[in-house]
């Protein structure tokens, strides 16, 4: 903690937990995307596009998780907090799109 009373109280563990949470989220998304690509009936281009999109999005999250959280800690120590709105929105759209495409294909095929 710096002399001004602001600063990150847990410089080691909290960023590590946050990074691990993002990586777990991405791994779960990859698992669901692969299951969707493998088990959703039919070989729809829409399923392949959304499945591939989910895998690419999750891979990007895993590759950038540590550096994003290091930057977040630096901002926190400087007294600025920034919510990762675009990252969360991107993952939300990805998961919702994957679920919607899976549900649509299942309804169409009648699984």
From TrEMBL:
Keywords annotated in UniProt: Membrane, Transmembrane, Transmembrane helix
Domain DUF202: 10-71
InterPro entries cross-referenced by the UniProt entry: DUF202
GO CC annotations, alphabetized: endomembrane system
Keyword Transmembrane among UniProt keywords: yes
Pfam families per UniProt: DUF202
Membrane-crossing residue ranges in chain numbering: 21-40, 46-65, 85-109
UniProt topology in membrane: Multi-pass membrane protein
Origin: domain of life: Bacteria
Localization per record: Endomembrane system
Primary subcellular site in the record, as a coarse category: membrane
Protein name (record): DUF202 domain-containing protein
Biological source species: Rhodococcus spongiicola
The organism's taxonomic lineage, starting at the top: Bacteria, Bacillati, Actinomycetota, Actinomycetes, Mycobacteriales
């Amino acid at each position: 903690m710096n002399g001004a009373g602001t600063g990150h109280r847990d410089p080691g563990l909290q960023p590590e937990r946050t990074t691990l949470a993002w990586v777990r989220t991405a791994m779960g998304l990859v698992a669901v995307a692969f299951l969707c690509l493998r088990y959703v009936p039919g070989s729809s281009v829409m399923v392949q596009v959304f499945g591939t999109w989910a895998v690419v999005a999750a891979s990007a999250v895993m590759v950038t998780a540590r550096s994003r959280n290091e930057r977040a800690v630096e901002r926190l120590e400087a007294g600025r907090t920034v919510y990762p709105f675009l990252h969360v929105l991107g993952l939300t759209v990805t998961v919702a799109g994957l679920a919607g495409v899976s549900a649509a294909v299942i309804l169409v095929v009648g699984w």
